[in-house]
Design goal:
Pfam families: NMO
Keywords: Detoxification, Flavoprotein, FMN, Monooxygenase, Oxidoreductase
Family: Belongs to the nitronate monooxygenase family. NMO class I subfamily.
Strand content: 5-15%
CATH topology of the largest domain: TIM Barrel
Strand order of the largest sheet: 1-2-3-4-5-6-8-9
Cofactor: FMN
Catalytic activity: 3 propionate 3-nitronate + 3 O2 + H2O = 3 3-oxopropanoate + 2 nitrate + nitrite + H2O2 + 3 H(+)
Number of helices: 13
Mean pLDDT: 96
Length: 332
């Protein structure tokens, strides 16, 4: 795996930010880039795979089960004022949704995707073996020593140690107790073992990369640092929110998707974080039309502004320039 991973990894950012253009630009700049399969249809994922080349990666969400449909139904009622605000209909609660997991794994196998990472748990050993036999190196994202132990049991090629400071969804498999108070350095120390580990979370500058590499990481994964990249598909409303300085802090919230994620604080997180249930991806589907309408209206207070604790250091510019300022030893 070490032959495929560069010191800086541009993280998969589900939704709009991770575009083929971002991945290709990262590769040209000497970083490793990941596509994000989460939320997308298999056809959309295949189109993106066909648009990239080189030692790229693909991130896939591991499906879970909806354990409390009644809680999600209650949350649906709480969201009615938001639906009215944006003039949209709330969909019925989806009880089962695997995010096309088998089809996305099959695409990775068919195309021999060089690096395949998983979030929200470990896939089966059979899935890992099938990918490895197709030539893929498999990575599993973990947030604790216990998760790392379970991941190691299916024999992946490496782990991604995700600190609670990371933006977007946490990979935690214990969402009820997740507080997001761990750093990438702490999780790296907790999960280090025989497998290579990529560290992720809260990386704002080259000094952070240097520190994590010195602590034993084979690479450092950065997402928030690339949200404002020219090649990223980040929504204009989020770009404007970040560039205007309106973002003052981040929060851990389940309000948008039913799973803990770190986002810039806005009206939606203030209103719904305390009442949002555990229920990914059912809650994600409930809020999807609200978020789409808010994005269309350029209303940053109604969308999920995923970002990590290092958001103040995010800069606009080409991916090449942003990679350069994060590379080990950089003084910029």
């Amino acid at each position: 795996m070490r032959d495929l991973i560069r010191p800086v990894v541009v993280a998969p950012m589900a939704g709009e930010p991770s575009t083929p253009a971002l991945v290709n630009a990262a590769l040209r700049a000497g970083a490793t880039g990941f596509l994000a399969a989460g939320y997308k249809t298999p056809q959309a994922v295949e189109d993106e795979i066909r648009a990239v080349g080189g030692a790229y990666g693909l991130n896939i969400f591991v499906p879970g089960l909806l354990k409390d449909a009644r809680a999600v139904e209650r949350y649906r009622e709480l969201l009615r004022p938001e639906a009215e605000r944006y003039g949209v209909e709330l969909p019925a609660v989806r009880l089962n949704d695997d995010d096309h997991f088998p089809a996305k794994v099959e695409l990775a196998i068919s195309y021999g995707v060089p690096l395949v990472s998983f979030t929200f748990g470990a896939p089966s050993a059979e899935v890992v073996r099938a990918l490895q036999q197709a030539g893929s190196r498999v990575l599993i994202t973990v947030t604790s020593a216990a998760e790392a132990s379970r991941a190691a049991a299916v024999r992946p090629d490496g782990l991604i140690a995700q600190g609670g400071s990371a933006g977007g969804h946490s990979a935690t498999t214990s969402p009820a107790g997740f507080t997001g108070d761990t750093t990438a350095l702490e999780v790296l120390a907790a999960v280090k073992g025989d497998l290579p580990v990529i560290a992720a979370g809260g990386v704002a500058e080259a000094a952070d990369v240097d520190q994590l590499l010195a602590a034993g990481a084979v690479a450092v994964q950065c997402g928030t640092a690339f949200l404002l990249a020219d090649e990223a598909g980040t929504r204009p409303a989020q770009r404007d929110f970040m560039l205007s300085g309106r973002g003052t802090s981040t929060v851990i919230t389940r309000a948008f998707t039913g799973h803990p994620a770190r986002a810039l604080r806005n009206r939606f997180t203030d209103t719904y974080s305390a009442s949002a249930p555990i229920g990914y991806p059912a809650v994600h589907h409930l809020t999807a039309p609200i978020r789409a309408a808010a994005a269309q209206a350029a209303d940053a207070d109604g969308i999920n502004l995923w970002a990590g604790t290092g958001f103040r250091s995010a800069r606009s510019g080409t991916t090449a320039a942003l990679v350069a300022r994060l590379m080990p030893g950089s003084q910029s």
